[in-house]
Amino acid sequence: MVSLLGLQPGTYEPHxxxxxxxxxxxxxxxxxIIIELLHARGDEAVAALGTTVRLDxxxxxxxxxxxxxxxxELLFGVDIHEMQPYRAIPAQIExxxxxxxxxxxxxxxxxxxxxxxTSYRTEHVKTSVVAEAIDPAGEKFRYFHNTSLHxxxxxxxxxxxxxxxxxxxxxxxxxxxxxxxFDAGPRLHGDALRAAARESFRQHxxxxxxxxxxxxxxxxxxxxxxxxxxxxxxxxHAYAFATLRMAGAGFQxxxxxxxxxxxPAGERASAALRRIVDTSRLLNxxxxxxxxxxxxxxxDELSAAWGEALAxxxxxxx
Length: 318
What we know:
Layout: E1 2-3, H1 29-41, H2 69-76, E2 79-83, H3 89-98, E3 102-108, E4 126-135, E5 140-145, E6 148-153, H4 154-160, E7 177-181, H5 190-206, H6 213-230, H7 233-262, H8 267-288, H9 296-315
Antiparallel strand pairs: 1-4, 2-7, 3-4, 3-7, 4-5, 5-6
Helix pairs in contact: 6-9, 7-8, 8-9
């Protein structure tokens, strides 16, 4: 089995952000796998989360946040860019890992056994994974997905790579794939990492929303609420993931970044950000009950907490 880092799923220790004690143990599939890839290499993944200060309400959903490619290159020498999956995916993964690189690829979670609580063998959902090891002859594949390192084999291997006779073929597009290189610059640590992350954070902060995005979200939520209360479970979950959960998870990562980057100087901003996390979760629980409720107090809290957090961050000395 060719392996990038020589890791075993049974002994792998995920990043502290993924070990529990968080309101949202999972954030989104892409950000979570980047956190785990960096962590597995020995890098401090929290340093790459400054881009979450730019979270905004995009009209019908909150920003699908990802670590900035520029940050990954600046802080860790990691270059991620789109690649063309023109050959069999297992062969490309094997070659890349053999060269000390890897691939991020969108797969169907129908075949990912780590999703047994959600979509494994029940629902076709695209999701991103990072390849850690592969054995094409033995039909085994190890991959970072969500909060940890996992392995699939045999029937799942053939299904996820479309090798089984019953798998889709001519009428299915190739998956979106990215090549991951680790030779784009130096890997920073300690004070040098914190200094570079702070400068990057200043730039992201300049691009934060000019107005309060929770004021805009309030108007849309009030408009959507009557239909949501009568919608089926699938519609509710899709809406909640794109809105309340995305905001809560994103600002949770921003709070972790502020804690790591600023220490005591960021305590007030971090506390305000965690109020956003808690209130988003509360609203989500109320919405899940599918009964009419008044969201004004929660929306007031979200708007106030965002305003306080951003004001504190903008007031920090240069």
